[in-house]
Write a structure and sequence with these properties.
The chain is of the alpha/beta class. Helix content is about 35%, strand content about 10%. It has a two-stranded parallel ribbon. Strand 1, helix 1 and strand 2 form a beta-alpha-beta unit. It is globular. The termini are far apart.
Length: about 180
């Protein structure tokens, strides 16, 4: 029987990064486990097919929220990836950190040190942003982040321009 220094459960983005960082120490042994299978399906690799893995019991755990009182007690679908890469593999390749105000709210409720400004350096350390140069983007991390193949397809820009024309503010780095 092999004994490991660390066991990481779940080979989604977070689990894979934690396992990789722990493995940087040559004296450390790490076991990374994942219940789901490979993420090599064409339905996972093709962003426009995201509805298939997000609604498939093969790739999605099928979690739901508790009844939402402001939505007539409906339960909301909460896709969570059951595959190598986790939810990052089934969400259409969308990378979003979360709203800065959410982190600040966590701290206001007692999660001391979890405000956005304290978390930002770790987000940046995680990222290797390929198309945004801003004070909010990292460039040397293990997670590659790009914007629609660096916006080479003219339809990407047309989609964003349509949003601006509809009154939404354009952003170079929406994680900022």
């Amino acid at each position: 029987m092999k004994i490991f220094d660390y066991i990481v459960i779940g080979a989604g983005s977070a689990g894979a990064i934690v396992a990789a960082r722990l493995s940087e120490d040559p004296n450390c042994t790490v076991l990374l486990t994942e219940y789901g299978g490979s993420d090599s399906s064409v339905f996972i690799r093709m962003p426009s097919a995201l509805g298939i893995p997000m609604n498939s019991k093969k790739y999605n755990w099928g979690f739901e929220s508790e009844p939402e009182p402001y939505l007539n007690d409906r339960r909301m679908n909460c896709p969570r990836g059951k595959v190598l890469g986790g939810t990052s593999s089934i969400n259409g390749m969308v990378y979003v950190r979360g709203n800065a105000h959410d982190y600040d709210e966590w701290e206001s409720h007692g999660a001391v040190g979890w405000n956005y400004q304290n978390c930002l350096p770790y987000f940046k350390k995680l990222e290797s942003h390929q198309c945004v140069a801003s004070e909010y983007a990292g460039h040397d991390g293990p997670v590659a982040v790009s914007g629609g193949n660096n916006m080479r397809n003219p339809l990407y820009r047309a989609f964003i321009n349509a949003g601006v024309d509809a009154g939404y503010r354009g952003k170079v780095d929406y994680n900022g």
